[in-house]
Write a structure and sequence with these properties.
Elements (H helix, E strand, L loop, with lengths): L5 E10 L19 E10 L2 E7 H6 L1 H6 L4 E12 L1 E3 L11 H8 L4 H6 L4 H10 L2 H17 L2 E7 L6 H17 L3 E9 L10 H18 L5 E6 L6 H13 L3 E6 L8 H4 L5 E4 L8 H6 L3 E4 L1 H6 L8 H6 L4 E3 L13 H12 L3 H8 L1 H6 L17 E4 L6 H4 L6 E6 L2 E2 L6
Parallel strand pairs: 1-4, 5-6, 6-7, 7-8, 8-9, 9-10, 10-11, 11-12
Antiparallel strand pairs: 1-2, 2-3, 4-13, 13-14, 14-15
């Protein structure tokens, strides 16, 4: 997986996402894509070293001298964007949840789905019974699939083990898979994903287990960068989330949370911990938007979940954007509510159901996704000094990326300077 010296030429539209903004994109800046026509990008040692016009690149004396040592990629007038940053995924599971899918179609409730052998319990049993090797192969397969769709950076959560042994096994599987994949993986400890069956009715006891037994080991072994919590009715309360955040802070883990998917949670108490991202955000009180806008916390939308669950309501993206909140998009890849790894599909849903423009959707899927993972110094834009993460799309205009939904127009992905298998251009 060694990076190569690469020169991409004849790019019809290069979306650099360059900005002078000191922080994530907000408001009108979401639409500033920094497009360079007839562009070229030079990458050396896994980094971007030069961005500009193809005609200027080909005249460069150094490039003329060293051209035989460089792999030249003719983009043939296509569109190149920064590699997508998928800042919310749950890749550690073993099986599809077809029982959930079919029962939900027939109108079954969550309780009826669980009684039929579906629901999160099915995923918990699968992870607890699986070997670390099995989980590693599953995670790696997901990462490889993501790369084929233009994603170069993935946040990967645990959260289907819900016991000390299985959560550690899940995080170790993420680490093992990440070592074999040329892209970047950010691990998140989601021990507080749900109250496991053996702790039903005793959520506080389980939160104590997460804080006192799981998190110290996760931190000691450096298995995760973030701690996450599903703050929701039927899962964990705001006070339990605060306990988890307080413990994470003690152990040097940054925080993020699932919030407002099914019910409203006031954000003020959580914002005091400066979370990198608050995700879902379907139901947010208007009074919380000014504080959210003043922070660098990113509101990450995952419309794939709304689509797959057949929900009529999607997050009101325009309300957030017009309030000055930084927004990102992610897939929420998981077996129960969003089994898609396609960031382009998430972007399409954001455009059609949340009324984001194609430009806003691309910014939310790249540079703001990088801010949601605190990686914006390395990821999310095409600039000299940043990691060589690029996606070539077989389209003539960037607006076609969310336009052609349900397919894959990504022709090539470059991950830290490593080209993926090239599809026919």
């Amino acid at each position: 997986m060694k990076s190569k010296a690469l020169l991409l030429v004849d790019i019809d539209q290069l979306l650099t996402m360059r900005s002078t903004a000191n922080g994530p994109r907000r408001g009108a800046s979401l639409s500033e894509l920094g497009i360079i026509p007839a562009a070229a990008v030079l990458c050396l040692g896994g980094k971007i070293v030069s961005v500009g016009a193809t005609k200027d690149a080909l005249r460069d004396p150094w490039l003329k001298k060293n051209r035989k040592k460089i792999v030249e990629i003719d983009c043939a007038g296509r569109v190149v964007v920064p590699g997508f940053v998928d800042s919310h995924t749950h890749p550690v599971f073993t099986h599809a949840r077809l029982v959930d899918f079919e029962k939900r179609i027939s109108g079954a409730s969550y309780e009826q789905i669980a009684e039929a052998g579906g629901g999160i319990r099915a995923s918990i049993d699968g992870v607890r019974e699986a070997s670390k090797g099995t989980l590693t192969r599953k995670v790696f397969s997901t990462l490889a699939d993501a790369a084929r769709h233009g994603t170069t950076t993935v946040e990967a959560k645990s959260g289907y083990g819900l016991s000390l042994e299985s959560e550690l096994k899940s995080l170790e599987a993420i680490r093992s898979a990440a070592r074999e994949w040329p892209g970047a993986v950010v691990a998140t400890f989601l021990g507080a994903h749900a109250v496991p069956p053996e702790y039903r009715g005793r959520s506080q006891e389980y939160v104590d287990l997460v804080c006192n037994e799981m998190m110290p080991v996760v931190a000691k072994r450096k298995l995760a960068r973030f701690t996450d919590v599903f703050c929701e009715s039927g899962a964990f309360s705001s006070s339990e989330a605060i306990q988890i955040f307080t413990t994470a802070e003690k152990f040097g883990l940054a925080v993020r949370a699932h919030v407002g998917q099914l019910s409203e949670t006031r954000l003020g108490p959580l914002l005091r911990f400066q979370p990198a991202s608050l995700d879902h955000m379907d139901r947010v009180n208007d009074a919380d938007l000014p504080a959210l806008a003043r922070s660098n916390t990113v509101a990450t939308f995952v419309p794939g979940a709304n689509y797959f669950l057949g929900l009529a309501r999607y997050p009101n993206a325009r309300r957030f954007i017009e309030s000055g909140v930084a927004v990102a998009l992610a897939t929420d890849y998981n077996p129960g509510s969003s089994p898609t790894i396609s960031m382009a599909m998430a972007m399409s849903l954001a455009c059609t159901h949340m009324k984001m423009s194609p430009a806003e959707a691309i910014a939310a899927a790249t540079i703001n996704g990088a801010w949601a993972l605190r990686l914006a110094d390395r990821k999310g834009s095409v600039e000299a000094g940043k990691d060589a993460d690029l996606a070539v799309f077989d389209v003539s205009d960037y607006g076609e990326i969310p336009y052609w939904f349900g397919g894959n127009r990504c022709a090539m992905t470059i991950l830290n300077g490593v080209p993926s298998t090239r599809l026919p251009l």
